[in-house]
Amino acid sequence: MNPSYWRRRGAVALVACSMAMPAVPCTTFVTDGPDGPLFARNYDFDFGEALLVVNPRGLRKSADVPGQQAATWTARHGSLTFNQYGVGFPTGGVNEAGVVVELMWLDGSRYPDADARPAVSTLQFIQYLLDRSDSLPQALEAAREVRIAGRTPLHFLVADATGRSATLEFLDGRLVVHQGQNLPVRVLANDPYAQSISHLKRFNGFGGTQPLPDDRSSLSRFVRAADRLRERPAGVAPAFATLDDVAQPGFTHWQIVYELRRGRVHYRTAAQRAPRWVDLAQLDFGCAAGLRVMNIDEGQGDRSARWRPYAQALNEAQLRVAYRKTAWMRQMSDEDVARSAQEDAAYPATMRCDSGGAEEKSSADRGG
């Protein structure tokens, strides 16, 4: 089976923390820092190669879901995303309005059956929310506008520049949202949020008597992250320290801290531990500026001006790495991997600048 068949349907069986094993999970959380809210995530997986992508506003897009009613939309907001499986298919990111969407593996997730709504693939769901949302309420509205056509079982943590946060889970074929008073702890790992909160209540500091756990299971990481957020002062450095506490040696390939109000994205990788950051305010998100990319492991310090213009060859090279290093694809021949990477790398060529979408964003910026 051609790997592109599966990627387009959001069913890449191992993408984005998807090895359903205790040794390879991910963790996310939201906390309040001295300069506004912070969103932090560990990305734990078999490999860490990826592209950072600047996605302009005003691009007209169509979902890559062959054989189904595909969603079409124009990006209202530009975004910075982390992409392993091709430009347009992020594992997470932030838009210029300060909305962050990050995914987690969740065994037992089941997306809604086909209905009248247009479809997006699993990873395009993230890009759709970033493209269409300037706040948490808008992100929740956008999540209900489309349905996910895929089988990779995921749930999502979403936050906006004010720190408002929500979990998005697909349980028994329906969207389940926890926000506000129903989100007492802004942490997400690899169990349903309600189950995680119930487990948390067993431990010291949260109503129970048990000592804090020290293993690497999803529920234990949830408890430890919640405890650190309760006990420790907030800030970028403490956020990274919390990520270290719930990291998976040998599998945690990225650590990201988003400063939501400031618009700065801090990140480090297993291959390059030197801290790096990107200031969104320094990025040109106009459609004429086009897509731009950067290798996630490059350089150190301020990377805000270190972009390359997007080229299909760069996208194809990343896809070759991803398809070769994704465990279930390792049996594919070199010829099949090369053909699939070339085919899938062509997707961004379907995007076009929509002057109406760009004008819509410009009008919103003016308050019109």
Describe this structure in words.
With 368 residues, this protein is of the alpha+beta class. It has a single domain, classed as 4-Layer Sandwich (Penicillin V Acylase, Chain A). The protein has 9 helices and 21 strands. The strands form 4 sheets. It has a 9-stranded antiparallel beta sheet, with helices on one face. Strands 14-1-2-15-16-17-19 form a 7-stranded mixed beta sheet, with helices on one face. Strands 5-4-21 form a 3-stranded antiparallel beta sheet.
* CATH arch. level architecture: 4-Layer Sandwich
**Helix-strand pattern:** HEEEEEEEEEHHEEEEEHHHEEEEEEHHEH
Which fold name is given in CATH as the topology?
Answer: Penicillin V Acylase, Chain A
Instruction: Supply the CATH superfamily name.
Output: Penicillin V Acylase, Chain A
Overall shape: globular
Identify the strand order in the major beta sheet.
Answer: 13-12-11-8-7-6-3-18-20
Largest sheet: 9 strands, antiparallel
Number of helices: 9
Determine the mean pLDDT: 90
Which features does this protein show?
368 residues; disordered C terminus; Penicillin V Acylase, Chain A; 26% helix; 26% strand; single chain; alpha+beta
